[in-house]
Specification:
This protein is α+β, with helices and mostly antiparallel strands and 477 residues long. Helix content is 41%, strand content 18%. It contains 16 helices and 17 strands. The radius of gyration is 35 Å and the shape is elongated.
């Protein structure tokens, strides 16, 4: 800075720019480098519940494809024939509305369960969670629990390591292939697939989807695991919109647990100024997504409650009460509510609204399926002969009736037309009753004659096919 001169002008300063020394460019990754997670085995109440849902879902998935019903596969989505068989129910393309209703029911169920107890679906019944649990069980049986797996991965490549890794991936591959095979078995009769595989007679689409779904299962449950839940699943991102202060989530009791620290089993934590948390990190070691629940609610938490089981085991060993980590709500944790107060807040307005809407949709869908008429009729005018005059000055129109029998028993129906004020003398010329085989569509040509009196143009009529009526138009030239 220059010194001020003797003139009366205000002093001025010159700023000299400082040129930084040349530095090497710094590269910073925009993505976190994955840290491999080795979940530790845990037992307890919630672990038993998880395995219950694992077994229940897989018994249904693998077993349902082999059940028979009326001489066919009980559940079969026959895309080639455009028929969906679900036990005694046969759905056709015209029943597409039921698929839309099923999606609506699934959405409201997700809203309801999330509002009550958070990510129950993710923690117990999601296919990603279920197959990851199965693959982890296979990994533990072959390689050992967490310390043994970590030691094996750090060891040099040798015969034992190669044998263990080959056995693990071989078991994963077989299970993944069988999963893909079963999945395709819901679209192509699974018994046909069983005979087609050894003969190498799988169709191109069947072969593609068997290996694609099997590879997806192998990759997601064996390799990607928590990455699917944290980065690929959209539910982790918008779940906060469905949570509120009274949603049951996994909570760490900071008031009771802090300050955390290690101590002897018989030591008095209060005398040492410590809380009940012994800082053993068991809750982190058993977490399948590798988070520390003591840092608060995080979007990566899938609500599997493995940390609850792990912490309860440590509390039992230390002689402390259970529940340092537990299912609770944010309001309950702040207000120190007991279990009765928590349950009382379950039936809050948003839960009642979700329940009412979901119940109404389910009842309406069930009633619609129960009262569904097994016949569907489409009336198509014969464009080659719209209207003509026949004997006795009567007018004849020709129609094509497409009659669909959605039941699995043959049906015989009579075809008629309701007389109207404009067309009192109207009759249908057919060859008698129409017999429609089970789950089949029949097309029949029908001639309708009438004696119009002072009527011209297009006149509305109604065809009667068994219990079904279908509207059409009768042309009078």
């Amino acid at each position: 800075m220059e010194e001020a001169t003797s003139t009366p002008r205000a002093a001025t300063a010159r700023v000299v720019p400082i040129v930084p020394a040349a530095q090497e460019p710094i590269e910073q990754s925009l993505y976190e480098v994955r840290r491999k997670i080795y979940p530790r085995a845990v037992s307890g109440l919630f672990a038993r519940w998880r395995w219950f849902f694992v077994l229940a879902t897989q018994i249904v998935f693998y077993g349902l494809a082999w059940l028979e019903w009326n001489g066919r596969q009980a559940v079969l989505f026959d895309l080639a024939a455009r028929k969906f068989y679900i036990f005694g129910l046969v759905l056709w393309p015209q029943d597409f509305i039921y698929l839309a209703v099923l999606l609506v029911i699934s959405a409201f169920s997700l809203f309801l369960f999330t509002a009550i107890a958070g990510r129950l679906w993710c923690g117990y019944a999601c296919p990603q969670t279920v197959y990851t649990e199965i693959f982890l069980w296979i990994e533990r049986r072959i390689e050992g629990d967490r310390p043994a797996r970590m030691k094996l991965d750090k060891s040099r490549l040798g015969a034992r390591k190669v044998a263990l890794k080959a056995a693990k991936h071989g078991a994963w591959g077989l299970l993944a292939f069988w999963t893909g095979f079963t999945f395709v078995g819901y679209f192509t009769p699974i018994r046909d697939l069983v005979f087609a595989v050894p003969r190498l007679e799988l169709g191109p689409w069947e072969g593609f989807w068997v290996f694609f779904y099997g590879f997806a299962t192998y990759g997601n449950a064996g390799w990607m695991r928590e990455q699917v839940c944290k980065y690929m699943c959209p539910y982790a991102r918008f779940q906060s919109a469905m949570f509120d202060q009274d949603t049951l989530v996994i909570e760490y009791d900071t008031t009771r647990g802090e300050p955390r620290g290690g101590r002897a089993r018989k030591a008095d934590p209060k005398a040492q100024g410590l809380g009940d948390c012994v800082d053993c990190n068991i809750c982190v070691q058993v977490c399948p997504t590798g988070i520390d629940i003591r840092n608060g609610l995080q979007y990566e938490c899938i609500g599997c409650a493995a940390c609850i089981d792990g912490c309860d085991q440590v509390m039992d060993k230390m002689g402390y009460p259970r529940g340092l980590i537990r299912y609770s709500t944010q309001n309950a944790t702040k207000g120190r509510w007991d279990r009765r107060q928590i349950v009382a807040r379950v039936l809050r307005p948003r839960v009642l609204v979700y329940t009412s809407i979901l119940g109404a949709i389910v009842l309406a869908t069930a009633a619609s399926l129960f009262l569904r008429v097994p016949l569907k009729v489409d009336v198509i005018r014969d464009r080659g002969s719209l209207a003509r005059q026949v004997e006795d000055d009567r007018i004849e129109n020709v129609y094509r009736l497409q009659v669909m029998n959605t039941r699995e028993v043959p049906v015989t129906v009579a075809i008629g037309v309701k007389p109207t004020r404009s067309l009192e003398h109207i009759e249908v010329l057919t060859d008698g009753s129409l017999e429609i085989p089970a789950t089949t569509t029949r097309t029949i040509t029908v001639r309708v004659r009438a004696e119009p009196e002072h009527v011209r143009g297009s006149v509305p009529i109604e065809f009667v096919v068994g219990p079904v009526t279908e509207k059409s138009r009768f042309l009078v030239p």
